């Protein structure tokens, strides 16, 4: 399945936040959307999922496997979310329900799309927790989000996003709130899961060093517009836009390192 975004424009309370962006994600591809804070990258992710805030006006086209999503009724879009396209948000502390165990939250994402008994849902929740390499999954599914570390909460969020077997995963800055060591573990996990399941990936970040670990193609945003599209290897060695050059300087000054071998290949 492929995603085609054409001339996507988003206005928030009359202010243009995303301005006519066009890109595509082929089946199995790994595309990064990168830019500074306020560039429109997270709003783009929300538009793809039909989750824009009240007052937002969106135009253009978002076609998933030939099906237009922007005009899809809410009930139909609810089935696309999770079942076909999953999303992992930046801060799981706010994305997870604080008064439900993480096992119930994983099971709920499965229950929406599959008719299973309570016992079967419980077993699936444990299996999904194990798949994202949570320690002692039988025990951890009984805990509440506040009882987990930041890295563990992010793994729960990934488990929820992947539980229904989507073909496309959107990861919206999933490592920003984590320290460097846990960040590396989560990136490795995402890389392995995407490769194992043959999914497509949209990875959103402000960090070119992070992007180099998981994506092959980069879409650079600034002020809601695309200023450059290129292979991530080209962004690391010969960025053309001033924005990409600045992102490279920031990456070089922090934790940049040559991209390790992943399932991704440069287009």
From TrEMBL:
InterPro entries per UniProt: AAA+_ATPase, ABC_Ni/Peptide_Import, ABC_transporter-like_ATP-bd, ABC_transporter-like_CS, P-loop_NTPase
Q: Name one GO cellular component term.
A: plasma membrane
Q: Where are the transmembrane segments?
A: none
Molecular function GO terms recorded = ATP binding; ATP hydrolysis activity
Keywords of this protein's UniProt record, alphabetized? Answer: ATP-binding, Cell membrane, Membrane, Nucleotide-binding, Transport
Q: Which residues form the ABC transporter domain?
A: 3-248
Where is this protein found?
Cell membrane
Instruction: Classify the protein's membrane topology as the record does.
Output: Peripheral membrane protein
Q: What family does this chain come from, according to its entry? A: Belongs to the ABC transporter superfamily.
Q: Can you name this protein?
A: Peptide/nickel transport system ATP-binding protein
Identify the species of origin.
Microbacterium halimionae
